[in-house]
Amino acid sequence: MAFLSKTTIATAAFAIISSQALSEACWDFKSDTAYMYRGPGQMSVREFGGDHRSAIMKYAAKVPKNTVFFMKDGELYSAAGMSENSLNELHLE
C-alpha cells in the first residue's frame, strides 16, 4: 500500500478514535511499523526493520499496561495505570 494511503488511513482511524462518538476502539499495531503523531490530524505510518530497528529503539520507551490515550484541546495525552473500573468511574461517553 502506498505511503500516502497508509497515512490517510492512519489519520482517519485516529480521528475516529479521538472522537467522542466512538466509545471503544481497537488499534491494530503491526510489528516493525512506526506510527508517528505530529499533532491534530497529522499522523504518518512507516515500515522499518533491520538496522532501523536498533536506531529507533534508542528513543523507545515501553508503554505500560492499562495506559489510556486521549485528546484534550487538540493535544494527545496518555494516563498510565488506569483500570477499566477507574475509567468507568469517570463516566466517559
Please describe what this structure looks like.
This protein is globular. The chain has helices at 3-18, 51-57, 84-89, and strands spanning 33-39, 42-47, 68-72, 75-79. It has 93 residues and is an alpha+beta fold. The strands form two sheets. Strands 1-2 form a two-stranded antiparallel sheet. The chain has a two-stranded antiparallel sheet with strand order 3-4. Helices cover 31% and strands 25% of the residues. The chain has three helices and four strands.
Distance between the termini: 34 Å
Q: In sequence order, what are the helices and strands, one letter per element?
A: HEEHEEH
Question: How large is the count of helical segments?
Answer: 3
Radius of gyration computed on alpha carbons: 15 Å
Q: Structural class of the secondary structure composition?
A: alpha+beta
Mean of residue pLDDT values: 74
User: What general outline do the C-alpha atoms trace?
Assistant: globular
Number of strands: 4
Strand sequence of the main sheet, in spatial order? Answer: 1-2
Give the strand content.
15-25%
Q: Can you give the helix content as a percent range?
A: 25-40%
Uncertain stretches = 19-24
User: Biggest β-sheet, characterized?
Assistant: 2 strands, antiparallel
For the structure shown, list the relevant keywords.
single chain, two-stranded antiparallel sheet, globular
Give a short synopsis of this structure.
The chain has 93 residues and is an alpha+beta fold.
